[in-house]
Specification:
By secondary structure, the chain is α+β, with helices and mostly antiparallel strands. The chain contains eleven helices and five strands.
Length: 221
């Protein structure tokens, strides 16, 4: 009955387990490490998707925007904007976007982008009710200017079909929009919460720059 109720309410698998525990039952859904052998085919599919996005950026993240994997296009973009990152440093893309000293200095429309993003995190925090998502939201709202960005109403007239991320460094402007993909019919908590975010150029100038960063040898390979 608990499982039927969770399915009817479209409750995520993590909350399925929480409901079962609250009702005195053992959890039924696993949370498998992405590096586990049994997820080998999933990793292969993920590698394929990230590679297909080249030379444009793509990343895989968990439900709290912790970076799990990225393609070379994403690395080139980050290194252009903020310089090389230490391989051993854990990266949270939510913090990188919202914090004052990472991507913000180069994101021309930071207020609009962060307003939309943090409102989506608010919705997730309300939906899942977990301490982890609430903690992420609290951390993001504590950054300077974020609450004001969230409270800024959207522009009355949308000038583009989607809101791009407009980066500027020196005399180079990059305008990118994103898509987010998830796995179909996941039966593991890790896989249900996996997100693959792909970045696409909003104009020909951006496409030209991103393609130009690829070395001739990589292009031929």
């Amino acid at each position: 009955m608990v499982i039927r109720l969770a399915i009817a309410l479209d409750v995520p698998l993590r909350q399925h387990n929480a409901l079962l525990l609250a009702a005195g039952f053992a959890p039924v859904w696993r949370q498998t490490d992405l590096a586990a052998p049994e997820l080998g085919q999933i990793r292969s599919a993920l590698d394929f998707m990230l590679a297909q996005q080249e030379p444009f950026p793509a990343v895989a993240v968990d439900r709290h925007w912790n970076l799990l994997q990225s393609n070379s296009g994403a690395i080139r973009l980050v290194e252009f904007l903020v310089g090389p990152l230490a391989p051993s440093v854990a990266v949270n893309l939510a913090d990188a976007l919202v914090a004052p000293d990472v991507l913000r200095p180069y994101l021309v429309n930071w207020t609009e982008v962060v307003g939309h993003f943090v409102r989506s995190v608010q919705a997730e925090a309300e939906a899942d009710g977990t301490a982890e998502t609430a903690g992420l939201l609290k951390r993001l709202l504590a950054y300077q200017g974020v609450r004001a960005a969230v409270e800024t109403p959207p522009a009355e007239l949308a000038l583009a079909p989607v809101l791009p991320m407009h980066f500027r460094k020196g005399n180079i402007d990059l305008k990118l929009f994103t898509t987010i993909a998830t796995l179909g019919i996941p039966q593991d908590i890790t896989l249900q919460e996996l997100r693959i975010e792909s970045f696409f150029p909003m104009d020909e100038e951006t496409s030209h720059v991103l393609r130009g960063w690829v070395t001739p040898s990589a292009r031929s390979g």
